[in-house]
Predict the structure.
Amino acid sequence: MAQAVANLKPSVGQVAKAGGTAVAVAIAVNVVLYLIGAAAGAFPPDALTPMGVPVDVTAVIAASLMGSLVGTIGYFILTRVLTLKLARQIFIGGVVLALIGMFFGPFGIPNAPVLQIILLEIMHFVVGGALWYFLAKS
């Protein structure tokens, strides 16, 4: 009986609620980090992303939102096609791999001060951590 309960898949609503919470937390924390960094001068207008724009609060919100949505959709798909235990293991592995893959991105911003790079790295971990925490327990 305990095995049957452990393999129950989260409902669409449970995943959506957990994903929505992860989105909200990631955006809120990352906006606060951005505002603190901006007040400290960590986001100068001449530090342009590969898209040719400086990092601003809109970009922080968009990146946090998109990363969280992709993670939520990925988690939902995994829980539909695999056992819950295996889906969680693969999801957590995917989050870790995504964080490793995103690690070098901030270093590619020309003229980025060290504080900007550090804050962007932390922001990546905030999104990954929110997804890991809220989705893996749904």
In short: The mean pLDDT is 91. Residues 11-135 form one domain. The chain has one domain: 11-135. The longest helix spans residues 12-39.
